[in-house]
Amino acid sequence: MRGILFHGERQLELAAFADPSPGAREVVIAVRASGMCGSDLHTYRGPRIDDPVIGGHEPAGVIVGAGSEVPKEWLGRSVMVHHYFGCEMCDQCRSGWTQMCRNGAKAMGATAHGSHADLICVPLSTVLPMPEGLSYLAAAAISCGTGTAWGALKRLQLNGSDTIAIFGQGPVGVAATQLATAMGAQVIALDISPERLERSRHFGAAACLDPSGVESVPDAVRELNGGRGVSKSLETSGASSAARAVLEVLDLWGSACWVGVGSTISFNLSDHLYRQITAMTSWTMSVPAMEECARFVVERGVDVDAIFTDRWSIDQALKAYEVFDRQTSGKAAFVAD
């Protein structure tokens, strides 16, 4: 089998590996789609890695091998994967929050081999059957990017009466715009890229705003929202300016959520205390939430495939990440022939 190794400093290698052999409670999956996630860029751009692992953490595919303790009916099933491996025994693992395992979790593409490969070997506990009608591309997106957006919107308890400002319209942000619109909420999309703002309109944004082109982002958002702040806000870009602004655009009793990695913020508590706001973070999603998101996408006819602007074969890895590194396009994935 082949897999893409991240060496850091924007260096990749398509390397050969022995085909994996499953343990007693593991399965081998032939990867049909492996999404490219913005968090991959932290490793791709980062310092040199002496002992790299196969990158990628958004897999979907077909089970082609199973260990001795795996029911044989799993063979041949189309599945998606929750990409964290925990102890399976602590309270967090048992509730589906494997990434918060009290005994330490491993993450595909970071501390364990990932999905940018022909084959992957994962614990059966991480695997979910794909609902009928869900594509491999959509299942891959739900494994992290779209799933992260879903987890944040659920943390915010978003509903159809809300107006939400979504900062950043990259793959996670545009997925949040698409899902929030499907939930009935009104979306104000913010990004400094005209191309990404145009895509957000296509996915249902009621209004779009380039924060670099206005003197005051909070004032501009209020002008778009009838003079009031928004009831909900979400930060997906990792930019510190956006991480501050998600608090500033809120109305009284509003709620803000951060999912973007890399920002640093500080604020005067009294500026927000007297407005009774709620602020929270969100880290991907649980196994039950992943299943819920997949059902929602199928039942509501959400076209997750449409967020993908680029599809690559695994042997195009160098070019694929050169393009993805520019962060001007939409979602991308490696797909099998």
UniProtKB/TrEMBL annotation:
Pfam family, one: ADH_zinc_N
Domain (Enoyl reductase (ER)): residue spans on this chain: 8-334
Highest taxon in the source lineage: Bacteria
SUPFAM superfamilies, per the entry: GroES-like, NAD(P)-binding Rossmann-fold domains
Cofactor: Zn(2+)
SMART domains per UniProt: PKS_ER (SM00829)
InterPro entries assigned to the protein according to its UniProt record, in alphabetical order: ADH-like_C, ADH-like_N, ADH_Zn_CS, ER, GroES-like_sf, NAD(P)-bd_dom_sf, Zn_alcohol_dh
Keyword Oxidoreductase on entry: yes
Keyword presence, Oxidoreductase: yes
Keywords attached to this entry: Metal-binding, Oxidoreductase, Zinc
PANTHER family named among the record's database cross-references: ALCOHOL DEHYDROGENASE-RELATED, L-THREONINE 3-DEHYDROGENASE
Assigned protein family: Belongs to the zinc-containing alcohol dehydrogenase family.
Name of the protein this chain belongs to: Alcohol dehydrogenase catalytic domain-containing protein
